[in-house]
Design goal:
- The complex is a heterodimer.
- Chain A is of the alpha/beta class.
- Chain A has three domains: 84 residues, Beta-grasp domain (Ubiquitin-like (UB roll)); 232 residues, 3-Layer(aba) Sandwich (Rossmann fold); 95 residues, Oxidized Rhodanese, domain 1 (3-Layer(aba) Sandwich).
- In chain A, 31% of the residues lie in helices and 18% in strands.
- The radius of gyration of chain A is 28 Å and the shape is globular.
- By secondary structure, chain B is an alpha+beta fold.
- Helices cover 15% and strands 38% of the residues of chain B.
- In chain B, strands 1, 2, 4, 5, 6, 7, 8, 9 and 10 form a nine-stranded mixed β-sheet that branches.
- Chain B is globular and about 40 Å long.
- The two termini of chain B are 13 Å apart.
- Classes of the chains: A alpha/beta, B alpha+beta.
């Protein structure tokens, strides 16, 4: 094999006998650099850490390509290739030996955190770490509520909350941050008040905005740990991707009826969410809590697991839930654990990654555009007011409810027919083709898919109730409970 | 360098020291700004992306001027190498560190990493702004001057 030319950066030339270029053999970049250090032992400590790994700030190029974007040390070398060693220059104030001394814990803090201070794994040093840490919780709902309460109690210095919703009476069954009197208030206002009354030493930062590709990096950047308490796939992928790009741990939790999952995704040390789920499920396959229901205590279990993992990460103690997916079943009252590995072809966090930035997550997850935006193109709609008028006419349309039976039992429109969306293709013959049909669900999303399906099956006069029962209750019948 | 440190505060600035080739002690002819390649922790850390160094070296090739070191600021920190600086130290380069606060820039200090001792040692640098020839009439200025109000 012909030796490969290795260009030596100026500061290392004196360790290679003054040469600007050295020729060594090797089939891969890793072998070439290893042989280089063997031939010039003075280079060893500048290229390799004591663990034998290449030092993180030594960058290697094959011709013009950074090997981090190829196959790293395993990048094969071909005849005529040139390997260049380029110093990555880095540093900064952090970890400065003369960092300003933190003030000692005050009397109130010594008392408040005394049960932490007694733990050798926490102690004064650990408690100070918590006090200077910053955690952001995406979603101040079922999962975010218990997480935020326990993190505030634990003395996490800054808690960021991301949510743009208001408190709804149907939240109170599980979102323990809020009280009955908070119904109708912006969630973040109520949450900030509650958390600061629990622990005035905690700073609560409100991010009352919808997280998207345009703002996610900016919102999450200041924080040390991200807690994912989202209830939808576009935001979950968005938060995962942002965490990977920012190099931050993402403490994941999700809930469905009686079952929950939790894990810690940290692409620097293990898999990311995309390694586990490269693709989202089809949008109509996974109902949200609002559609499927959830045991109110379940998010309490999973949210406190997330808070526990966040605190462990900050303290640097124990075994983080990295590379492990914890599954909880409340009906069986059983925990199971699955090992999850980094996907060697993950589009985001593998050496062969093809995605180096954020994408359009609604499109990625196949979310139908909301009616306010593109307007479910081609789907005929009817407003709640127009429907009220038509129902009062001589020839009222057939009302088709495409929600689940549990939702139907709570509330439905009089004289409606229930055919859950999933059963619609098999039961379409039950619908009289001659009549006008108005399809409805809770928010207008599922019914717009059902309307499209019926149109495709040749129904002539089908319309979607715009905004679903939520809009009906708001604009036509306030006595109908909004669930 | 001072302007750069002031402009990027509270984030760290970083850049290159262009040095006359074969000068001992090093003669700095100019400083050139670099981009802080980090996405996060920019108030406490910096990283110069290797491509940028590579491009500059290609440009300087044969000009008699070389990249002889780097500068960076420590916002609200001391003008001394930090533990992180030591972890990432490259030998045979000058490392200039500027203390910067919301009001002041300075002191400014220069170090070189001694790989045998595995620690930074203070060094003196001579500055000849504009890259003029030796003895152009301009006094060389020691970097170790007083802090100044901004």
């Amino acid at each position: 094999m012909t030796p490969t030319r290795v260009k030596i950066p100026r500061p290392l030339q004196s360790f290679a006998g003054g040469a600007t270029e050295v020729s060594v053999e090797g089939a891969t970049v890793g072998e070439v650099i290893r042989h280089l250090a063997d031939e010039h032992p003075g280079l060893e400590k500048h290229l390799f850490a004591s663990s034998g790994e290449l030092r993180s700030f030594v960058t290697l190029y094959v011709n013009d390509e950074d090997v981090r974007y190829l196959q790293r040390a395993r990048t094969p070398i071909h005849e005529g290739d040139t390997v260049t060693i380029v110093p990555a220059i880095a540093g900064g104030t952090s970890g400065a030996p003369t960092a300003p001394k933190e003030p000692p814990l005050g009397r109130d803090q010594l008392v408040r955190y005394s049960r932490h201070l007694l733990l050798p794994e926490v102690g004064v040093i650990g408690q100070k770490k918590l006090l200077s840490s910053k955690v952001v919780i995406v979603g101040a709902g079922g999962l975010g509520s218990p997480s935020a309460l326990y993190l505030a109690a634990a003395g996490v210095g800054e808690i960021g909350l991301v949510d743009f919703d208001t408190v709804d009476a149907s939240n109170l069954q599980r979102q323990v941050l809020y009280a009955t009197r908070d119904v109708g208030r912006p969630k973040l206002d109520a949450a900030k008040e509650r958390l600061e009354s629990l622990n005035p030493g905690v700073r609560v930062t409100r991010h009352a905005e919808r997280l998207g590709s345009g703002n996610v990096l900016e919102v999450l950047r200041p924080y040390d740990v991200i807690i994912d308490g989202t209830d939808n796939f576009p935001t979950r992928y968005l938060v995962n991707d942002a965490a990977v790009l920012l190099g931050k741990p993402n403490v994941y939790g999700s809930i469905y009826r009686f079952e929950g999952q939790a894990s810690v995704f940290d692409a620097r040390r293990g898999p990311c969410y995309r390694c586990l789920y490269p693709e989202p499920p089809p949008p109509d396959q996974v109902p949200s809590c609002a559609e499927a229901g959830v045991l109110g205590i379940l998010p309490g279990m999973i949210g406190t697991l997330q808070a526990t993992e966040a605190v462990k990460l900050i303290l640097g103690i124990g075994e983080p839930l990295i590379g492990r997916l914890l599954l909880f079943d409340a009906l069986e009252m059983r925990f199971r654990e699955l090992t999850i590995r980094k996907n060697p072809t993950c589009v985001l966090c593998s050496p062969s990654a093809t995605q180096h930035g954020l994408i359009d997550y609604d499109q990625f997850c196949g979310v139908p555009q909301s009616d306010s935006a593109a307007g479910g193109i081609g789907i005929p709609e009817i407003t709640p007011e127009a429907l009220r008028d038509e129902l009062g006419s001589a020839d009222p349309p057939l009302l088709l409810d495409v929600r689940e039976p549990g939702e139907w039992e709570v509330v439905h429109l009089p004289n409606a027919t229930l055919i859950p969306r999933g059963e619609l293709p098999d039961r379409v013959t039950e619908i009289a083709r001659a009549r006008a049909v108005v399809v409805y669900c809770r928010s207008g999303q599922r019914s717009s898919q059902a309307t499209r399906l019926l149109l495709e099956l040749g129904f002539q006069n089908v319309r979607n109730l715009k905004g679903g029962l939520l809009a009906w209750s708001e604009r036509v019948d306030p006595s109908m409970p909004r669930v | 360098m001072r302007q750069h440190a002031r402009a990027t505060y509270p984030e760290e600035c970083c850049g290159f020291l262009l040095v006359r080739e074969h000068s001992h002690p090093r003669v700095v002819v100019s400083a050139e700004r670099a981009r802080n390649g980090l996405e996060t922790e920019r108030g406490r850390q910096f990283e110069i992306v290797p491509e940028e160094l590579q491009r500059l070296e290609d440009r300087l090739d044969g000009s008699g001027t070389i990249v002889g070191g780097f500068y960076h600021s420590h916002p609200d920190g001391p003008a001394r190498p930090s533990a992180r600086d030591e972890e990432h130290a490259w030998p045979r380069y000058s490392h200039v560190i500027l203390r910067v606060t919301s009001r002041t820039v300075g002191p400014v200090d220069s170090f070189e990493f001694d790989s045998d001792l595995a620690k930074f040692e203070p060094t003196r640098l001579t500055v000849r702004p504009g890259g003029g020839t030796v003895g152009s009439g301009r006094d060389s200025k020691n970097l170790l001057d007083e802090s100044e109000e901004t």
